[in-house]
Specification:
The chain is of the alpha/beta class. It has a single domain (10-192, 223-246), classed as 3-Layer(aba) Sandwich (Rossmann fold), CATH 3.40.50.720. Helices cover 45% and strands 14% of the residues. It has 8 helices and 7 strands. A 7-stranded parallel sheet has the order 3-2-1-4-5-6-7, with helices on both faces. Helix 2 (42-54) links the parallel strand 2 and strand 3. The protein is globular, with a radius of gyration of 17 Å. The N and C termini lie far apart (38 Å).
Length: 253
């Protein structure tokens, strides 16, 4: 058995048009999976599809907003119609519309963060569950964050949502384990993406992070992509309900 072989597995990756999601999509495709690239903008998804196809991989684009249940249902159904049952789901898309103390946050903002970062993942997991249950095999990866492991005075709601992702993985792992469905989280540290641009593009802030990180560098999207392949493939077939921290050692200092 080739442990990292995903040949002909059908995978959906949300937030796949850039950053960590894009890397995960590429690495799954390189391992042989047929990958659905999803984010809000169809054009951005199509661009990634073309890059994957240029490498000889198999991909298609289906845009969807994680905030809208009907669009997620459409994403899952269109995938099934084209390629059959879904084997792998990666919930990577997330929102962080607020920077500041929790005391100044409106209910609307808090609800939006929890809706997009937790409820939407729960929806998607439930939508692909029948396929995975029927074939007694499946892998779900929720992209969380090290923010879910510590407090913050400025991105509190985001961190609460990321801690909830970890618990969602644990709960679903317990519920769906008898069907041989594995549910895990990846918790990235600071990764060089558009999402973290304010930090990574500031030489002073970036330098401070690098000095405090045992590996002495900021992460790259491909530092996360390979972990998704591990969790989606036979190499990770005895791992479930876990959160794999990939932060260069920041949390163990």
């Amino acid at each position: 058995m080739k442990l990292f072989n995903l040949h002909n597995k059908v995978a959906i990756v949300t937030g796949a048009s850039r950053g960590i999601g894009r890397s995960i999509a590429f690495q799954l495709a390189r391992a042989g999976a047929k990958v659905v690239i999803s984010s809000r903008k169809q054009e951005a998804c199509e661009a990634v599809v073309q890059e994957i196809q240029a490498e000889g991989g198999t991909a298609m684009a289906i845009s969807a907003s994680i905030a809208i249940k009907e669009q997620l249902q459409n994403l899952v159904q269109k995938t099934r119609d084209a390629w059959g049952p879904i084997d792998i789901l990666v919930c990577n898309a997330a929102s962080n519309p607020y920077y500041g103390p929790t005391t100044g946050m409106s209910d609307e903002i808090f609800n939006k963060v929890m809706h997009n970062n937790v409820l939407s993942s729960s929806w998607l997991c439930t939508m692909v569950y029948p396929d995975m249950k029927a074939q007694k095999d499946g892998a779900i990866v929720l992209v969380s964050s090290v923010g879910g492991l510590h407090g913050s005075s400025v991105i509190g709601a985001y961190n609460i949502s990321k801690a909830a992702d970890m618990q969602l993985a644990r709960n679903l792992a317990v519920e769906w384990g008898p069907d041989n469905i594995r549910v895990n989280c990846i918790a990235p540290g600071l990764i060089r993406t558009a999402f973290a641009k304010a930090l990574t593009d500031d030489p002073v802030k970036a330098g401070m992070v690098e000095n405090e990180t045992p590996l002495r560098r900021i992460g790259e999207p491909d530092d996360i992509g390979g972990i998704a392949v591990l969790l989606a493939s036979a190499a990770g077939k005895y791992i479930t309900g876990q959160t794999i921290v990939a932060d260069g050692g920041m949390m163990i200092r």
